[in-house]
């Protein structure tokens, strides 16, 4: 099948399901629906009307719906709506049947009151598991971990571990790593299912387990957890508290979401707009973009005020006005490049302290080199175009200085923000360019004032 | 252990290894080295001198080194150097022992001559496997897939499949999905190791396998493959040709690299600089940044030429010069926001054709709203600051028009590039802002010329 055929085949399946709903054919619906992958179930579900969804709730068990809900990646409002339209006891049963980390993500969208309502409708065990995860801070390992892991004791044999695994396989989020704990539930080893399979039933776990377990702490930043996944290529990582007690696991599918989030946030920072929600009304999009635009407008006013101080200079030599936007624009471009490299470097560097001075010197040198080349180029252009080498010299010098300063700002500001504990990606591109406008104008008019008498 | 203790513990291990190398203590070295995770082995290896590395090659078998090389993520030059310093027969043996996809990645760094040399030193089977993957186009499923998967026939029992798996576990890249093929090696089903484990030994594979296999085609773009991983949360996906023959699998660890690459490319595009290599000399960094800067400088010259045409206007009312950078800057910021959202939307949208007009209208409306709010704000400021409401009106109108046009350009250009088959991320931020400078100046001076007689 090619992609198109596959898409058509899937559309046909969705059609068949819709007809089954319309004809109230429960068995047809169930048979065809449960054949779909949970992601496809979710795609179908999202395409339904409220009435059709209500019908689905009566056709599927809370557990069956829970599997699908585990894979839903809708926006907050839609997810809230779905939960609210279910009978509370049905919703609570579904939440209990979901993987705990996903159930917690859903409950975090609701108010405290609704969360309490659903918890009260669950079995005490399910409610306790969820409550345990509810209080972890956002964006930490604790917030993305799940408690559905498999753990065993070291004095078991491979055979008994396999029998235990068979029992747990239905509820665990992953069975491909088995964590070995002592009787205080402290993590002492790890063994992969691959290792279990290639060893004889009689072998003891303690003989074949790896005692050097790579783990993360419950309070670790989720981006650091993602980096550990990138480095070690694991499918799951155990999460412990500060006394090595095993609390849960983070799985690679959740990490892919974290990596996407990380990329989106860096990207949003560079653009000065949160790009997370891309399909919204112009009014909503405007309210999202205006705060930055207006803030930058006021910052830009500083540049305008500065130029106003040189109005006399401009009125004497209006040719100066011609090159304002060229100098501010080029310096802004250089600053953006420098910023992007700095933010990226901070994201992947392990040893930030050591490299601070080195990076700074490197950026100044890069600024001087790019500035000199660009400056000489514009000197040539202006000298020929306007037949005025002195004016060319002024523009070229200003260009070089402005680019060097912009490069410095582009790399210095994110590094300072990082040192002060802020996310360096917040030092956005527009902020750097607007700031660099200010310094560029200052440099430009001061150099121009110096040589004023020579080029007129 | 906390993070710091873990880091210190690892440093101690690296120290012990270095001493073992210095003391030429083979058995100590091997024991301690093989205890490390392959990622850590790689970190240690990268910290060595050429002489120490040469010693390592004599202490480790090609297979042991291959495991470590599978996880190396160094830059091209370093990897080439490593290969070249090994004896050719040792390097060839190591390449044969690596996962085929990684070996191919390495060979792609070398010239044709070197590749042929290593292939000639391998066993015919290993060379054939590698050759098969060498000719797939960059950035396709074929280029990132590996051939170390496990496949079985449908008429086997769970027990016999498990026995086969035990044998294959040592060489397969993943054993957590087993692919079911017919006697023409066409993909007919899939079963997870989890399913094998929970079913009885006597059950036939055909009874429990899933016949709806999600697969990708060998020529599919790697970013599309990554999207399928995101949607379906798989650990691996089978790759087929256009007649459903199973050719290989793509595993989730390779997909994480693809997702990082995707994010870096979008981010680089927005900044107008390739941020992939972050630790390079100022000279190298400059040669990377200058092409864009100089290109944009020439584009910026168009704006300067345009302003030059209005020099008479500026010399009559030098106050106009004060607001040039404010208008170009703000419009540039708006254009960058719009660009970022458009590129993101194109990256995640499934149905690009349908939404083209809708997005365009939405962006124009967003431009008008943000433009109106920003325009009214600047009107108020200028009217009060300069005591000149007519000038304020000119600046406000120009601001609104410039922002709307910049928004339009920011969303239109990436969409057009996408339609023409280019990567929309190449429509970089600096390009959009420089272009928007041009239109902003045009708009500004034309409006100013209209009202010239009124505000002086």
TrEMBL record, chains A, B:
Pfam assignment, any one: MgtE_N
UniProt entry tagged with the keyword Transmembrane: yes
UniProt name for this protein: Magnesium transporter MgtE
Coiled-coil blocks: none
Family: Belongs to the SLC41A transporter family.
Subcellular location: Cell membrane; Membrane
Oligomeric form and interacting partners: Homodimer.
Main location, first listed in the record: membrane
Transmembrane segments: 290-308, 320-343, 364-384, 390-413, 425-452
Sorted UniProt keywords: CBS domain, Cell membrane, Magnesium, Membrane, Metal-binding, Transmembrane, Transmembrane helix, Transport
Membrane topology term: Multi-pass membrane protein
GO molecular function terms attached to this record: magnesium ion transmembrane transporter activity; metal ion binding
PROSITE patterns, alphabetized: CBS
Domain CBS as annotated: residue spans: 145-207, 209-265
Function, as annotated: Acts as a magnesium transporter.
């Amino acid at each position: 099948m090619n992609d198109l055929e596959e898409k058509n085949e899937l559309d046909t399946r969705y059609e068949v399901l819709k007809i089954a709903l319309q004809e109230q054919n429960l068995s047809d619906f169930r048979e065809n629906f449960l054949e779909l992958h949970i992601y496809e179930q979710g795609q179908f579900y999202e395409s339904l009307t409220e009435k059709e969804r209500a019908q689905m709730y009566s056709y599927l068990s809370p557990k069956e719906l829970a599997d699908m809900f585990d894979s839903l990646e809708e926006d907050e409002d839609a997810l809230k709506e779905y939960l609210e339209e279910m009978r509370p006891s049905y919703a609570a049963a579904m939440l209990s049947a979901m993987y705990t980390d996903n159930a917690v993500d859903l409950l975090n969208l609701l108010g405290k009151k609704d969360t309490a309502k659903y918890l009260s409708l669950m079995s005490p065990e399910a409610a306790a598991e969820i409550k345990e995860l509810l209080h972890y801070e956002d964006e930490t390992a604790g917030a993305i971990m799940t408690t559905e892991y498999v753990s065993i004791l070291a004095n078991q044999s491979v055979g008994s571990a396999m029998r235990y695994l068979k029992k747990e396989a239905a509820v665990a989020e992953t069975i491909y790593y088995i964590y070995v704990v002592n009787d205080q539930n402290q993590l002492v080893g790890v063994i992969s299912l691959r290792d279990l399979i290639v060893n004889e039933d009689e072998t003891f776990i303690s003989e074949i387990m790896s005692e050097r377990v790579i783990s993360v702490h419950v309070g670790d930043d989720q981006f650091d957890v993602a980096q550990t996944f990138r480095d070690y290529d694991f499918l799951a990582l155990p999460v412990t508290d500060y006394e090595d007690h095993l609390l849960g696991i983070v799985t690679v599918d959740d990490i892919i979401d974290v990596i996407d989030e990380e990329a989106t946030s860096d990207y949003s920072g560079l653009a000065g707009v949160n790009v997370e929600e891309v399909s919204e009304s112009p009014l909503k999009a405007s309210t999202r973009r205006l705060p930055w635009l207006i803030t930058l407008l006021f910052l830009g006013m500083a540049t305008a005020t500065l130029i106003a101080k040189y109005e006399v200079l401009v009125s004497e030599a209006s040719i100066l006005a011609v090159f304002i936007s060229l100098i501010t624009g080029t310096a802004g471009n250089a600053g953006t490049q420098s910023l992007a490299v700095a933010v990226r470097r901070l994201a992947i560097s392990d040893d930030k302290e050591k490299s601070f001075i080195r990076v700074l010197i490197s950026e100044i040198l890069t600024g001087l080199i790019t500035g000199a080349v660009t400056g000489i180029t514009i000197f040539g252009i202006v000298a020929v175009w306007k037949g005025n080498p002195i004016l060319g010299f002024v523009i070229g010098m200003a260009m070089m200085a402005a680019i060097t300063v912009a490069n410095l700002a582009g790399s210095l500001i994110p590094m300072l923000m990082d040192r002060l504990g802020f996310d360096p990606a917040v030092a956005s591109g527009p902020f750097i360019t607007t700031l660099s406008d200010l310094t560029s104008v200052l440099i430009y008019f001061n150099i121009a004032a110096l040589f004023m008498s020579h080029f007129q």
